Amino acid sequence: MFTRSGFSAAKSFLAWRGRQLAAVNVLVVVAMAMGSTLSCPVARGAAPRVTFDATALAACRDVTPDDFAAQHPGCKLVEARFQVSVRIEEGRGDDVATVSVEFSSPEGRFRVFSYDPQTWWVSDALGPVDVTTQRETAAAAQAEVRASIKADVGPAEGELQPNLGRTSSQRMQVQEHYSRRPDSQRVLVTGTTDAEHGVFFRWRRSEEATLEGRFDYSCRLIVPTAWRADWAAIHCTAESETSTWLGSKRLTCGETKQVVALYAAGDAKARRRAEQLAETARGVTHASRSGRGGDATRHTTLRPVTGDESSSSHWLAELTRWLHR
After folding, report:
1. pTM listed for this prediction
2. Helices marked H in the chain — which ranges?
3. Are residues 143 and 172 located together in one domain of the fold?
């Protein structure tokens, strides 16, 4: 038979067990709620949306130096200049972390010899940074005096040698002053791609440079001597930095593919061919963006203009392949 004390002990145990189970349930609910929100961005306003616009037609002037022509027979250098405009349609500009522009020949018909601008470093400091360091040194000196006293004490003879010493220390402060170059960061990172058949420009957010506006670029391209016209691909992307409970992550907030028609400056026929290409490319691009692939199947044959008019490369087919990659 249970006594009154036994019933009280059982009642206390059941109450304690109930409180324990209730605490476990609360922890489970909290964990589930956190799991559903850990990957959610911290509220910082609307996510940015970036759009791009690029040059559609570019005249390329011959810039071949004599030494290059001597070392590379059958080739010449042409300079292509183009612009890319970046516009932040929505959100804050501070949330856009990087903007990348890639200029390339998907078919590998030209190689990049040089380009501008190149990697660019900036610093918040306006001039050399003055640095002052301070350190403390300690010096110690010890003086010792020894004396010897002899005395005759009865039948025995003894010698007393007292030792007097003194130690002193000095502390000295040393100050050093010098200048060094200020810390800097890369605002623009550049380099070639696809075995030098392209070049990329990656802009990073900084206090010194804005990622919005029009940017000018130039590339010197190695092409055949008989080159008169062709096309190049411009691929633009923008990334935003979003903070989450687990840290920060990068998200694509803008991307576009555009075509720039290239032609030899002063060549009227090449210019007309390039204009035709630019118009066709605009239609192909719009059809690709809207998902109306059938609109791009025009019976137009556009070939790179060289001395050999029997070239079998078709610009339209190339554009369509590139836009659907």
Report:
1. 0.64
2. 4-37, 66-71, 268-290, 315-323
3. yes
